Amino acid sequence: MSAVKKGDKIKVHYTGKLNNGEVFDSSVGRTPLEFEVGGGMMIAGLDAAVYGMKVGDKKVAEIPAKDAYGVVNKDMIAEIPRANMPADLEPEVGQQLSMQQPNGQALPVIV
Predict the structure, then answer these.
(1) Domain segments of the chain: what residues?
(2) How far is Cα 80 from Cα 25, in angstroms, rounded to an integer?
(3) Which has the closest alpha carbon to 50: 18, 1, 17, 8?
């Protein structure tokens, strides 16, 4: 059984938690996450955490924001009046939506 190294294609189950213990994402009960180690397609912290692991290993890795989804940028937070949303939309915290920019380009947003 060899240790994970750059270029390996692996499958992992994961559970992402915030510092307060709240789960924000998990592959449990779903298909494992598959990616090429060092391929640049995964958040840097998770990519780095799997190096040296072997099949069946379990690991807890604390990943700082800069190596995950980035630090909070208050300039990217905006309040949108409910009246500007479709009447049949029931937004939920964490839900991903798409907005249209003035130039017509789609912009993914998270509630």
Answers:
(1) 9-67, 74-110
(2) 25
(3) 8
Cα–Cα distance, 111 to 109 (Å, whole number): 7
* The two structure tokens encoding residue 107: 């912009």
pTM attached to this predicted model:
0.67
Phi and psi at residue 62, to the nearest 5°: -90, 120
Contact between 53 and 3 under an 8 Å Cβ cutoff? The reply is yes
Residue 68, CA distances (Å) to 15, 54, 88, 91 in order: 13, 23, 33, 25
pLDDT digits (tens, 9 = 90+) for 4-62: 999 999 999 999 999 899 998 999 999 999 999 999 999 999 999 999 999 999 999 99
